[in-house]
């Protein structure tokens, strides 16, 4: 796989740091694939991340939500007294980061049957939602009625 050095672009741009970070992360996406995961869209503003972490207990996992990033870390205490003949279930430590879009927040997490599920919701603040602007003091609902008459 080819790697690209994006640092020359950083010198000539302002305010695009997050965009370049995302491009760099996409480039490194194939490097680590443990634990396997799914990202599912449940509805227009609801998502769910599912991680397959068999062999871990909820006490072995830490979930940290920061601005635009959710990090899941897992570490299993080394149990030296166990003597495996074959060890196919991986319990190695991991750290998986997911970048979140603006206004997407972690709402809850659950652990069942070896799957960790993290529920996400996009909640756009009222101040950021589109709104109608009245012209010359006309009520905003009047503007909508005038538009529907013009379309007819």
TrEMBL record:
The entry's keywords: Stress response
SUPFAM superfamilies found in the cross-reference section: HSP20-like chaperones
Domain SHSP: 28-138
Protein's UniProt keywords contain Lyase: no
UniProt-listed InterPro entries: A-crystallin/Hsp20_dom (IPR002068), ACD_IbpA/B (IPR037913), HSP20-like_chaperone (IPR008978)
Gene3D superfamilies, sorted: 2.60.40.790
Domain of life: Bacteria
A Pfam match: HSP20
Family note: Belongs to the small heat shock protein (HSP20) family.
Name the UniProt record assigns to this protein: Molecular chaperone IbpA
Originating species: Bradyrhizobium stylosanthis
């Amino acid at each position: 796989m080819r790697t690209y050095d994006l640092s020359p672009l950083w010198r000539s741009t302002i305010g695009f740091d997050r965009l370049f970070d995302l491009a760099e992360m996409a480039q490194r996406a194939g490097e680590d694939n443990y634990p396997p995961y799914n990202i599912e869209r449940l509805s227009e503003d609801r998502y769910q991340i599912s991680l397959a972490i068999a062999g871990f207990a909820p006490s072995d996992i830490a979930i940290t939500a920061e601005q635009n990033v959710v990090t899941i870390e897992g570490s299993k205490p080394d149990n030296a007294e166990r003597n495996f003949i074959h060890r196919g279930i991986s319990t190695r430590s991991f750290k998986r980061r997911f970048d979140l879009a603006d206004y997407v927040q972690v709402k809850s997490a659950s652990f069942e049957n070896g799957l960790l599920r993290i529920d996400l919701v996009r909640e756009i603040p009222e101040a950021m939602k589109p709104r109608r602007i009245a012209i010359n003091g006309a009520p905003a609902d009047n503007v909508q009625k005038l538009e529907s008459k013009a379309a007819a």
